[in-house]
User: Fold these one by one.
Assistant:
Number 1:
Amino acid sequence: MTVELQGIGRRFGERWILQQLDLKVGQGECVALLGASGCGKSTALRLIAGLDQPDRGHLLIEGEPMDRVPARQRRIGMVFQSYALFPHLTVRGNLDLGLRLRGGPVQDRQQRIEAMLDVVQLRELAEQRPAQLSGGQRQRVALARALLRDPRVFLLDEPMSNLDAQLRDELRPELKRLILDGPQPVIYVTHDQVEAMALADRIAVMRHGRIEQIGTPQELYDTPSTTYVAQFIGRPPMNLINMDDNSVIGVRPEHLNLDDAGMDCRVLNREWHGASQQLLLDSQHGNLRMICDGGVSLGDSIRVSWPSQREHRFNASNGRRQ
Ligand SMILES: Nc1ncnc2c1ncn2[C@@H]1O[C@H](COP(=O)(O)OP(=O)(O)OP(=O)(O)O)[C@@H](O)[C@H]1O
Ligand SMILES: [Mg+2]
């Protein structure tokens, strides 16, 4: 099973929200669409789901053009940030509704729902209504409902962004087990780079309705093709230093080292993160962020350097990697 976007564009009025989207997601692959708010991620998913139509380009599922295939015939499992559960129905009722619309014998339906309640570990809560569930439990109902549709493709639009950090950590392995490890292609929208790095086989960094770079998490981390990608992947973001020759040197905070022969800096701010600390340094190149192990206090004068092989170089005018 594959999903393929060929030159997809969408405009609202005069504004092209999606410029030219080319993307192929293979069998069992998870691609994260990562980008800032408003860059067109949800719009792209809605087009794939058939909830909206592109103004140019084509969408193919399993090689078949979807131009004239309505949403309900595309067999797509979609999960939203807002869960989109029916508040007056119980968990069981919510799961049943999707199946009932597709028809089939009552007994089959019931069997599948009961099995699914075990898979997502919601059996005890089957008679509760959404308002009586936690955010994580609601999201599991939404995942179960998408799974029951037996989709050819999964589209997930920030499915965990309403959950707190701890619950997200808990739900990530479940999401992997239930959806990402399956044979269907998955497109996973998020603006959280940690989530994208953790879950996706490949990440497409979107900016202003285009894909700025696509690659494995490691490729994007090691060789970002622009300063935008460089600062979007990795946290805290890469330091960028303007040089005199119209170039920019990029160094990740985790690649700065204490070095007696290095550059003079003063510690302007220090955040303790347990295993490491994050420093904000004043240097001849402006402020730099640094991650280090400890032994540094606020106001200290320190010397830092970085290994030359960890240095990235970009063109200062267009931001492209040199
Ligand atoms: N129906 C519409 N009519 C007009 N403009 C729209 C419509 N839908 C979306 N837009 C605009 O398209 C742009 C992209 O919206 P979209 O919802 O795809 O962004 P997003 O990347 O999902 O952002 P977020 O991370 O905040 O969810 C926004 O500027 C939005 O205002
Ligand atoms: Mg969105």
Number 2:
Amino acid sequence: MYSKKLIDSIEKEFETLKSAGKFKVERELDGAQGAEVRIAGRQVLMFASNNYLGLANHPEIVKAGKEAIEQYGFGLSSVRFISGTETIHKILEKKLAEFLGVEDSILYSTNFMSNLGFFATITNETFGDSAPYLDAIYSDELNHASIIDAFKLCKKENVVKRIYSHGDVALLEKMLEEDKEKNYRFKIIVTDGVFSMEGYLAQLPELKKLAEKYEAMLFVDDAHAIGVLGKTGAGTPEHFNLHGQVDVLSGTFGKALGGAVGGYIAGKKKIIELLRQKSRTYLFSNSVPPSVVIASIKALDLLKEKRELLDKVRENSEYFRAGARKLGFKVLEGIHPIVPVMLGDAAKTQEISQKLLAKGLFVVGLWFPVVPEGAARLRFQISAAHTHEQIDQALEILSEVGKEMKII
Ligand SMILES: Cc1ncc(COP(=O)(O)O)c(C=O)c1O
């Protein structure tokens, strides 16, 4: 029977995943996201979420969401271009564009969808010209899964993909130089602003120079940087004094800015209008619900009013980094609240993450194939919501377990 064959195949696949240590187990939280959460009836310290500013359960965000539900209802039961556009969508898009220093922005249900939508729209669009064409995309090898999957929606016959080794600007330049005479229609350099496994930042100034020199468009997915990096929290461009100078930005409201859902593309008005007209993941998918829109507007307002949240997450990140280093752990250099503690060995990383959780510290262990073989790590994520006491407690648990396992 067909379904039995499928079920047997699934079981076989699960066995393979389990024996390779790749079978994912989801930890169930009971209650709100925060500096501490409840797991299996116990209060534990949370160092595994993207809640960088602590807005996921901030009282003003919660209040804004509640009021929005009362005023606008729960959902809009429609896509944007049929009957799903509210004035508040336009307000958020305008506010976001101003915040990022660009002309316009467009909301998607998620950042995954916005990335899929952008690349498919740009590269598949003929602009009424029947002549054959080729676009070229230059992508960092460590770019997010949504960017990699976005390429799959671009027609093979119209797109050349060139993947450069992580951060290898020299290799990227070599590729662009080789392609100089190839007459590509559009060239797009695409990078994550912050790479989520290391917390490393893209070398935006160099990428920007190359984009200008070779007449390519620069696309930065700033999911982990919006609300985190830069003087006002506007992300990696602001951090590198390139505020408003990156051609196209994508990002999410699902991490620092309230942590619910909602993605975007931001940049030139004409590009945004093209996406509104043609992007299938925008056109044929429901509009972002009012509670999320209003709470996201609130998140942008809070970021402006409470710069101390940005200072706090930075200061906390430094405090944790220095503390973990002082204990004798190998910590990757960086300034981002993603703080990887390098252990190398996958089995050891699996064991330590379980032991830490048993003692009340939730942190994610990452190992091959998520990170390179031999580079297994604990990925701590720091939040403005953490107090120094909570960070001290986390360090104490880390120290205890590290000593017990003879890591330090
Ligand atoms: C760089 C990057 N891009 C896109 C996404 C997807 O964001 P969303 O959850 O809004 O789909 C993520 C989230 O993990 C990310 O880290």
Number 3:
Amino acid sequence: MSTSVAVIGTGYVGLTTGACLAHLGHRVTCADIDAAKVAALAEARVPFYEPGLAELVREGVAAGRLRFVLGGAAAVDGADLVFLCVPTPQADDGSADLSYVEAAAGSIAATLRPGAVVVNKSTVPVGSASVVERIIARDDVTVVSNPEFLREGSAVADFLRPDRVIIGTESAEAGRRVAALYHSIDAPVLITDPASAETIKYAANAFLATKISFVNAIAAVCEAVGADIGDVIRGIGSDRRIGPDFLRPGPGWGGSCFPKDTRALVSIAEQGGYDFRLLRGVIASNAEQHDRMVAKVRQALGGSLRGATVAAWGLAFKAGTDDVRDSPAVAIIDVLLAEGATVRAYDPQAVIARQGLVQVGSALAACEGADALVVLTEWSEFLGADLDGVATRLRTPVVVDTRNVLDPPAAAAAGLTLLGVGR
Ligand SMILES: NC(=O)c1ccc[n+]([C@@H]2O[C@H](COP(=O)([O-])OP(=O)(O)OC[C@H]3O[C@@H](n4cnc5c(N)ncnc54)[C@H](O)[C@@H]3O)[C@@H](O)[C@H]2O)c1
């Protein structure tokens, strides 16, 4: 059954939602307030990198099932279901800033069709469904929470093959209508009250961040006691209660979600009178992880970054995306620059601008004349890098691999001194 859908916000979540729903046969109108973005999308040009998304956008536009308009009001008049996919950044006090959600809700209130369901896909604190309800202020419209769990870098696959679909609503009828939209997707649908749905999203992200910070802390223990993190991960990951996924040490978690969502959950808990000390510890431990990686680079350079040239592989917060929001790679590079280093950076997709940083077109070009190489993002092209080429281009053959992607025997064979994490 084809449903008429509007999507408000065409970022990583909104555009993926719109393009995938069109792919499933629904008629989708996507709205954004960024006129340049809308103009590009109307010509099926995707303004950011997400594998497989451009193809789906082209397919939807060509089939006449996907269109783009400027502003929410123009998108919703014919829509049965309206998805809010706008940003919920961090406010100054660590809580979630709801101003974009409020503005988006306000922009559609008057033009919503009677009986429409507004579906909140933005990550929002408990109680936000009622905030949206108050702003829309219509008896003939229902607000439902439907948090999104897609990962940048595999957003399309995650949307079309999710582990679960969570729908938070007090209205069984509205819940059924949202679930029907996903009927061709093979995933369990869990219908909860809105507060539980909103909590599930924050709890999932907080748990995943905790898992990464835990393995990073175990990597520090491995370094302290002479154990090998790779073996330790294999050993604990084969316990089914723990599982092998999300157990990779690295430079610390980042991206557009974990940092703001962990802080928002601390703030949500605080407002409810609970001091979430565990999660505060995870956040502090993540900041320490960035510092530990910078200390490794300092160590590789003999104690000081002043006047050094560092080659940096990776800017994106993880492989598969061009997103640099709260990227640990960028956080670490900023400290290197602040301590007086010059950085020659390479990333296959992401771009940043910084005084003291030059961005070059290849991994080997980044190494040209550098005093050390630091690997910051786990792009697959780094796994098979030409290490002999690295060794001949570096002034000193030393590499800090914050992602443990390079092969130690291959690095040794190329004459490189390799500093990894937890080994
Ligand atoms: N990025 C992720 O991996 C991810 C995953 C799950 C959930 N989320 C959540 O989804 C939400 C959106 O995240 P994102 O990464 O897609 O954001 P984004 O910054 O990539 O995109 C948001 C878009 O909304 C547009 N916008 C802002 N106000 C608008 C308005 N009033 N009307 C129409 N468009 C408007 C912006 O111009 C932008 O294009 C956030 O709450 C985020 O926490 C993100």
